[in-house]
């Protein structure tokens, strides 16, 4: 009798517990009919970065009738940079302390202010010409032949002007795009300007550097290494199959901005 009473009590308690449990809620259906809409989204696996870049290549067009040759030179520059130039730059960075590298860069930058001044005068840029003149005088005297750069600290930063910009200033078109061995991107106008700047610097022979360089080619090598050391661009850094087109476009547009300054 007692056993039956205990069983009946247990069954009653179980029934009450089940009665107190809330009924399961019906799944809430959103207005669009989906309970998990993200599962219904479909992505196009082919729409990757390469496809996107290919669709925008039309905007990167630059007059480049020698593209086949330029691409081969670009590839040569890439390998030369990888196998020769950058290892030399790394060695230069390793064996020379920072203040020496800074002094070398300042010295060659000071030499560069000579063609900067000439081209600024040719473009009738009075204010810029005065600033470059003041910079050249300060760095050559107080900066000890340009080894230091007090002018920048006095509000006279380096301002690049070359004969290619001068030609562009007077309306000479840039002509076909060119990729120069080792030197990198250019065009017909700027390549001619580069030759004029080199000839002018040699004739002026500022601080006797041009004459010394003709007798000591190691000075030319040091200048080239310093130029590569101070240039941040690295071939392949864009990680794109269209790097050639991008570099060509950026160079062309940058030159337009420099001429318009």
TrEMBL record:
Keywords: Lipoprotein, Signal. The keyword tRNA-binding does not apply. InterPro entries: MlaA. It comes from the Bacteria. Residues 1-19 form the signal peptide. GO terms for cellular component: membrane. This is VacJ family lipoprotein. One of its GO terms (biological process) is intermembrane phospholipid transfer. Belongs to the MlaA family. It holds the Pfam family MlaA.
């Amino acid at each position: 009798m007692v056993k039956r009473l205990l069983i009946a009590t247990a069954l009653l308690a179980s029934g009450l517990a089940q009665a107190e449990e809330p009924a399961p809620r019906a799944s809430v259906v959103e207005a669009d009919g989906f309970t998990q809409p993200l599962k219904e989204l479909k992505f196009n696996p082919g729409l990757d970065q390469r496809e996107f870049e290919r669709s925008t290549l039309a905007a990167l067009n630059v007059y480049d009738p020698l593209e086949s040759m330029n691409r081969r030179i670009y590839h040569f520059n890439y390998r030369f940079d990888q196998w020769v130039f950058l290892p030399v730059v790394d060695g230069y960075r390793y064996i020379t302390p920072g203040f020496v590298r800074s002094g070398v860069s300042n010295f060659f930058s000071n030499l560069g202010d000579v063609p900067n001044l000439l081209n600024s005068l040719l473009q009738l840029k009075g204010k810029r010409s005065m600033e470059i003149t003041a910079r050249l005088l300060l760095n050559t005297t107080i900066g000890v032949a340009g080894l230091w750069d007090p002018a920048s600290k006095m509000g006279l930063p380096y301002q690049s002007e070359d004969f290619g910009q001068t030609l562009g200033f007077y309306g000479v078109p840039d002509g076909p795009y060119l990729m120069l061995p080792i030197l990198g991107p250019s065009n017909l106008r700027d390549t001619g300007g580069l030759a004029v700047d080199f000839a002018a610097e040699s004739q002026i022979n500022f601080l006797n550097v041009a004459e010394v360089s003709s007798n000591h080619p190691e000075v030319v090598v040091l200048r080239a290494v310093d130029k590569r050391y101070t240039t941040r661009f690295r071939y392949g850094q864009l990680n794109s199959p269209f790097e050639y087109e991008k570099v060509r476009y950026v160079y062309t547009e940058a030159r337009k901005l420099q001429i318009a300054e």
